C-alpha cells in the first residue's frame, strides 16, 4: 500500500500513520478505515498483545469444570508458598515440590496437555536422583540461608552454608 | 565477543547448505531443565538466580563447552544487543524482556545456545540449517548429559524432568522446524495444511508477525507433547511423519504453479525482485513478503543471478537491530526503512543503479 506511506495520523495529525485499521460498524456493516500512529493507536486501546497461551485456557476450563474449585484454590506448597490459585493465574509452578503437592489436581491437566501422556518414558538421570525428601531439604536449607543473611545472622548463615556444601559437593568457585 | 562482528556474520543455521534447504530453513531442538534443590524462577530470589547462573556456567566450563563459547550477561546487555540476539534466534523475546540476573552462553558458529534463568533454570538449544533434527538432537543430548554429570536436575519418577510450566514436563523437549511455504500460500491451500498439522497435536505459528498471519511465508512447526513419549519417538515422528508431508505439499504446489500459472507466478517473483532492487524506503514487513517471493523464484530456477544464501542473509540483516548494528547508529523507523532499502539494493547488485 504505497499510498499509505506518507499518510499522517488521523488523530494527532503530526506523525506518520503506521497502524492501518478497518473497522466494520456493527449496525450498518459499513467499513471505516482508520490510519493512526503507534502512540495514538495505543491511546485508543488498539492492542498488539498476543492471545493467551493455551495453558491458561486449559486451566480456566479445567477449574471451571471442577466442583468445589474453591478448595483446590486453597492448596498450598509449604516449601515455596505457591497456592493453586496463583499457579492457575500465571501458569507457572514455584518449585519441584509443587508437582507432589498439586499432583492430584495436576493429573487431569497434564493428561490433557500431553495428549493422554501420564508417565515419563524418556531419558532418566544416569545416577539415582536424590530422593524427593532430599531435594526438598535442599530447597528449605537454601531458603533458611537467605533468611539468615537478610537478618544478618552470619553465624547461622555459615552453619547453613556448610550444611548445603556437604549435601551437594559440586559447587566450585568460578565466575562466568 | 563483539556484537558488531556478530551482526556482520551470516548465521551458520542460515547457510542453506542443509538438506531440503529450499523448503526447510532450519531445525531446532531445545531442552528445558531445572536444578534440584532450588525453587523455580517464579520463586527464586536474586541471589539464588546468581547462584544458578554460576553453577550452570561452571558446569559448562568443566564439561569443556566453555572454551569457544561466549557468555552474555543479558541483564547488563544493551537493549540493541539483546534485540540482535533475539533476531539471531539465540535467545527468546521473553529472555530479552524479562528482569533479574540471566544470561546466555553461545557456542562457536552459534549452533548451540544455552539460556540461563529464562522460564526454566536452563534451556539448551541447538540450531542447524535445513532438515537436520537427528544432528541437532545429538548436540543437545550430549551437552545435557555432560551437564548432568556435574549438576543434579529436578526429576520426578513419574513426571520426569520437572519444569516451571507443566506443559514442558517429562522430556522437556521442544522440536521445531522453520519452513518456507510461499506456494501453499499462493494456491490458497496453506490453511488446510496447517489445520491438518495442528490436528496431529503440533503447534504452528508464523515466524514473523502475530497470530495466524505469517509475514514472509515463514512458519514454525513444533511439538506440544513432552510427556508419554521418548525423545527419540518425538523426533522420529516429527522427522518422518509430519515434516515430509508438509514439504511434499509445498513442492507439489510449486510444481502446479509452474505448470498452470507460469505467467502469474513469474509476475509475482519478478515484481518482488524489481521492487527490492529499486525501492528507496521499505518497511520490514514489506521486505519479508517480497524476499519470500524472490526466494521462491531462486528455488524454482526463475531467478538465476542471485543465490539462496543472499536472500537468507537479507531475511536476517534487514531486521531492525541488525540494520542499526551494521550502520553503527541508533535509527528510528523511518531511517531504518531508508537504510534497509539501501542494503537490499546493494546486496542485489543494484547499488549504483539510478533507479
Could you characterize the architecture of this molecule?
The complex is a heterodimer of chains A (176) and B (355). With 176 residues, chain A is mostly helical. In chain A, 44% of the residues lie in helices and 7% in strands. In chain A, strands 1-2 form a two-stranded antiparallel ribbon. In chain A, helix 2 packs across helix 6 (103-113). The radius of gyration of chain A is 26 Å and the shape is elongated. Chain A starts with 18 loop residues before the first strand and ends in a 9-residue tail after the last helix. Residues 1-5, 49-53 and 169-176 of chain A have low confidence and may be disordered. Chain B has 355 residues and is an alpha+beta fold. Chain B has two domains: 3-254, Creatine Kinase, Chain A, domain 2 (2-Layer Sandwich), CATH 3.30.590.10; 261-348, Up-down Bundle (Four Helix Bundle (Hemerythrin (Met), subunit A)). Helices cover 46% and strands 15% of the residues of chain B. Chain B has 13 helices and ten strands. Chain B has helices at 3-8, 46-62, 79-87, 93-97, 133-148, 182-186, 190-199, 231-260, 262-278, 284-299, 308-317, 320-327, 333-347, and strands spanning 24-33, 70-73, 103-106, 112-116, 122-129, 155-156, 160-161, 173-180, 202-206, 218-223. Chain B has an eight-stranded antiparallel sheet, covered by helices on one side. A two-stranded antiparallel sheet of chain B has the order 6-7. In chain B, strand 3 (103-106) and strand 4 (112-116) form a beta hairpin. In chain B, helix 12 crosses helix 13 (333-347). The longest helix of chain B has 30 residues, at 231-260. The radius of gyration of chain B is 21 Å and the shape is globular. The two termini of chain B are 39 Å apart. Mean pLDDT of chain B is 90; it is low at 351-355. Chains A and B meet through helix 6 and helix 7 of A and helix 2, helix 5, strand 6 and strand 7 of B.
Amino acid at each position: 500500500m504505497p499510498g499509505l506511506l506518507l499518510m499522517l495520523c488521523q488523530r494527532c495529525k503530526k506523525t506518520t500513520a503506521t497502524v492501518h485499521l478497518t473497522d466494520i460498524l456493527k449496525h450498518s456493516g459499513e467499513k471505516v478505515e482508520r490510519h493512526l500512529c503507534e502512540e495514538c493507536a495505543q491511546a485508543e486501546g488498539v492492542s498488539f498483545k498476543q492471545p493467551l497461551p493455551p495453558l491458561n485456557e486449559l486451566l480456566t476450563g479445567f477449574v471451571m469444570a471442577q466442583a468445589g474449585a474453591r478448595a483446590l484454590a486453597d492448596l498450598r506448597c509449604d516449601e515455596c508458598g505457591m497456592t493453586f490459585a496463583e499457579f492457575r493465574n500465571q501458569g507457572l509452578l514455584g518449585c519441584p515440590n509443587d508437582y507432589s503437592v498439586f499432583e492430584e489436581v495436576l493429573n487431569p491437566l497434564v493428561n490433557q496437555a500431553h495428549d493422554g501422556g501420564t508417565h515419563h518414558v524418556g531419558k532418566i538421570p544416569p545416577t539415582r536422583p536424590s530422593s524427593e525428601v532430599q531435594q526438598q531439604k535442599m530447597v528449605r536449607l537454601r531458603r533458611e540461608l537467605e533468611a539468615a543473611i537478610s537478618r544478618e545472622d552470619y553465624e547461622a548463615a555459615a552453619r547453613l552454608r556448610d550444611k548445603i556444601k556437604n549435601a551437594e559437593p559440586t559447587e566450585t568457585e568460578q565466575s562466568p | 565477543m563483539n556484537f558488531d562482528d556478530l551482526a556482520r556474520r551470516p548465521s551458520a543455521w542460515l547457510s542453506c547448505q542443509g538438506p531440503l534447504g529450499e523448503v526447510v530453513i532450519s531445525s531446532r531442538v531445545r531442552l528445558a531443565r531445572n536444578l534440584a534443590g532450588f525453587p523455580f524462577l517464579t520463586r527464586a530470589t536474586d541471589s539464588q538466580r546468581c547462584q544458578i547462573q554460576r553453577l550452570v556456567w561452571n558446569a559448562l566450563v568443566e564439561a569443556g563447552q566453555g572454551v569457544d563459547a561466549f557468555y552474555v550477561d543479558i541483564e547488563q546487555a544493551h537493549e540493541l544487543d539483546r534485540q540482535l540476539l533475539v533476531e539471531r534466534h539465540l535467545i527468546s523475546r521473553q529472555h530479552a524482556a524479562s528482569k533479574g540476573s540471566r544470561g546466555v552462553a553461545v557456542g562457536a558458529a552459534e549452533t548451540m545456545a544455552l539460556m540461563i534463568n529464562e522460564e526454566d533454570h536452563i534451556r539448551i538449544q541447538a540450531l542447524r540449517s535445513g532438515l537436520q533434527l537427528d544432528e541437532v538432537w545429538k548436540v543437545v543430548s550430549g551437552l545435557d548429559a555432560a551437564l548432568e554429570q556435574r549438576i543434579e536436575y529436578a526429576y520426578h519418577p513419574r513426571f520426569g524432568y520437572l519444569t516451571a510450566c507443566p506443559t514442558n514436563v517429562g522430556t522437556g523437549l521442544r522440536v521445531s522446524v522453520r519452513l518456507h511455504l510461499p506456494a501453499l500460500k499462493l494456491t490458497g491451500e496453506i490453511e488446510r495444511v496447517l489445520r491438518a498439522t495442528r490436528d496431529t497435536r503440533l503447534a504452528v505459528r508464523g515466524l514473523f508477525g502475530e497470530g495466524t498471519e505469517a509475514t514472509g511465508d515463514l512458519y514454525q512447526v513444533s511439538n506440544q507433547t513432552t510427556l508419554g513419549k521418548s525423545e527419540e519417538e518425538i523426533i522420529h515422528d516429527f522427522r518422518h511423519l509430519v515434516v515430509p508431508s508438509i514439504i511434499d505439499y509445498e513442492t507439489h504446489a510449486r510444481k502446479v504453479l509452474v505448470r498452470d500459472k507460469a505467467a502469474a507466478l513469474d509476475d509475482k517473483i519478478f515484481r518482488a525482485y524489481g521492487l527490492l532492487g529499486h525501492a528507496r524506503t521499505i518497511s520490514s514487513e514489506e521486505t519479508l513478503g517480497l524476499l519470500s517471493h524472490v526466494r521462491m523464484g531462486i528455488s524454482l530456477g526463475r531467478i538465476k543471478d542471485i543465490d539462496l544464501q543472499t536472500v537468507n542473509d537479507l531475511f536476517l540483516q534487514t531486521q531492525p537491530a541488525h540494520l542499526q548494528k551494521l550502520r553503527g547508529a541508533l535509527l528510528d523507523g523511518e531511517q531504518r526503512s531508508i537504510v534497509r532499502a539501501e542494503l537490499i539494493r546493494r546486496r542485489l547488485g543494484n547499488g549504483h543503479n539510478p533507479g
